[in-house]
TrEMBL record:
MF terms in GO: DNA binding
UniProt-listed PANTHER family: NAC DOMAIN-CONTAINING PROTEIN 87, PROTEIN CUP-SHAPED COTYLEDON 2-RELATED
Domain NAC: 18-179
Key words, A-Z: DNA-binding, Nucleus, Transcription, Transcription regulation
Keyword Amino-acid biosynthesis attached: no
Pfam families in UniProt: NAM
Matching InterPro entries: NAC-dom, NAC_dom_sf
Protein name per its UniProtKB record: Protein CUP-SHAPED COTYLEDON 1-like
GO biological process: regulation of DNA-templated transcription
Main location: nucleus
Localisation: Nucleus
């Protein structure tokens, strides 16, 4: 029995061994409901599958090395930086380039079931990484989906007993976002604006 080998899995830290074939692939609603909401409203919340990065100091090709798991997709939390101290525009520049928003933001709903209408809980923004400086940057095949709280998700999490003041909640809700980054196989394919 001592010589029998355990199935090979992925080790995260020193405590978790995952079985072969395990994938972390939450739906948009799950990212908002079970991860981002708790990250914003529960002090000290961590997730074994979602790392944390400083997006302005991390190039996209460095993201896989900073991820907690994932082969082709990597999930992160990060705090949005403002381009100007008193402005609302996000700073998404890195040393080598910048993330540029593309297309319209997509609303994310929590389906309540029954007769109640779906409730908006977040937004998803798609960004593409460009090498160089705007407006002459060169488009790459790095894509990121940035998730932010919106609507009812900006209210305090009902199960969160470790949050403090409303000011902290409002401040956190406007800065913390979750992101899914990946390298798209096609170069031609075309992670907060809250107060």
């Amino acid at each position: 029995m001592g010589d029998q080998q355990q199935p090979q899995g992925t080790s995260i830290g020193d405590s978790l061994k995952l079985p072969p074939g395990f994938r972390f692939h939450p739906r948009d609603e799950e990212i908002i409901t079970f991860y981002l909401t708790f990250k914003v409203f529960q002090r000290g919340f961590t997730c074994i599958a979602i790392g944390e990065v400083d997006l302005n100091r991390t190039e996209p090709w460095e993201l896989p090395g900073k991820a907690k798991m994932g082969e082709n997709e990597w999930y992160f939390f990060y705090q949005k930086d403002r381009k100007y101290p008193t402005g609302m525009r996000a700073n998404r520049a890195t040393e080598a380039g910048y993330w540029k928003a593309t297309g319209k933001d997509k609303e994310i709903y929590r389906v309540t079931g029954g007769v109640a209408p779906p409730v908006i809980i977040g937004m998803k923004k798609t960004l593409v990484f460009y090498k160089g400086r705007a407006p002459r940057g060169e488009k790459t095949n790095w894509v990121m989906h940035e998730f932010r709280l919106e609507g009812s998700s900006r209210l305090p999490c009902p199960t969160s007993s470790s949050t403090s003041t409303g000011a902290l909640k409002s401040s956190s809700a406007s800065k913390v976002v979750a992101a899914l980054a990946f390298m798209h196989p096609c170069i031609l394919l075309s992670l907060l604006d809250l107060i």
